Amino acid sequence: MKVALVYDRVNKIGGAERVLEALHEIFPDAPLYTAVYNPKTAPWAEKFNVIPSFLNKFPFAKRSHEVYPWLTPLAFESFDFSEFEVVISVTSEAAKGIITKPKTLHICYCLTPTRYLWSGYEDYFKNEVFRFFTKPVVSYLRRWDKIAAQRPDVFVAISKNVQQRIKKYYGRDSEVIYPPVDIDKFPISNSQFPIGEYFLIVSRLVPYKKVDIAIQAFNKLGLPLKVVGTGREMGRLKRMAKKNIEFLGQLTDFQLLSYYQRCQAVVFPQEEDFGLVPLEAQACGKPVIAYRAGGALETVIERKTGEFFDKQTPENLEEIVKKFKPEKYKPEDCRQNALKFDIKIFKKKWKTYLKNISTS
Predict the structure, then answer these.
(1) Which pLDDT score is estimated for 67?
(2) Alpha-carbon distance 8 to 38, whole Å?
(3) Residues near 164 by Cβ (< 8 Å), separated by ≥ 6?
(4) Deepest of 4, 42, 124, 336, by most Cβ within 10 A of its Cβ?
């Protein structure tokens, strides 16, 4: 079976990129098509045969693809997939808009319907002046996005949460295959060193991740909070934070592991489509304090592997942290829950799915 992979852009590292790495293990010969490719910021992609679009030659496109929103759809429509039997687009944006011939099966593994056009529109376009001037572009992209969503032969969603959005915004049915966690990379610590007093956030520092809520809450609590990750919000968040909050920047998985293993709990203040961080934390035997929404509802078991706060406010998070007692949670329970999402299960489900759909 000749397979190709398609992804929106290869210029960063995050949960979606780990999905691609897992798919590469299933289909090691599959090339990876994308709008733009920046090898400096995406070293994980060295193992792939990456094929970028014409957009990759445009000024600033590798780092700031946002300056060409009207060209991104054309970039994906320009690819030729006639030599492939199966194409899997992994996307939260335009990659689903590829054009395939009838003999090629196009499976869209949907991370979410394009966030800034649909579920996240209010967050991305809060500024009324910006909203007014971008209205024509957004209108064009919404029309194209709905057309593009009819092109895949089938949809697979990363969570029940995303499955509902696919139905709501695109009118398409989908199956759910949860993204993978490499459980072996995130073991429970067997070290005799004492557990640290700090709480932990692992996140890109962008507005919708709501890290500012946690900063404000821990400013009042005075408890140690360590923040792993980078992003355009870093400067603002650092200025906001008091001395009990430490920013660690981007870490490797190996470096991150010790912070997971020694923290009191991981704080997850955002609404995610799925979210790998709560599962990485639980794999290390650590509970999660999460906002009661999105993918966390599918990965955290209340009062067994973590707790939820109901309002996305510093005050509500502060209230839950004050009541939080880490000794209530058994590391074995947390890890057992994470094991349901292991990479081995992901691979097995994809192989079974492809076998079933190819013979149906």
Answers:
(1) 76
(2) 12
(3) none
(4) 4
How does residue 193 score in pLDDT terms, banded at 50, 70 and 90? low
Instruction: Give CA–CA dist 260/146, Å, rounded.
Output: 40
Give me the percent of the chain exceeding a pLDDT of 70. 99
Q: Residue 352 has what pLDDT?
A: 96
- Judge whether residue 150 has pLDDT over 80: yes
Q: What is the C-alpha to C-alpha distance for residues 256 and 253, in angstroms, rounded to an integer?
A: 5
Contact assessment for residue 65 and residue 46, using Cβ atoms and an 8 Å cutoff? no
Residues 6+ apart with CB under 8 A from 342: 180, 181, 182, 183
Confidence category of residue 192, pLDDT binned at 50, 70, 90: low
| Domains annotated on the chain, with CATH | 3-180+342-359 (3.40.50.2000), 183-341 (3.40.50.2000)
pLDDT, tens digit, 9 for 90 and up, residues 85-139? 999 999 999 999 999 999 999 999 999 999 889 988 888 888 888 888 899 989 9
Q: What is the pTM of this model?
A: 0.89
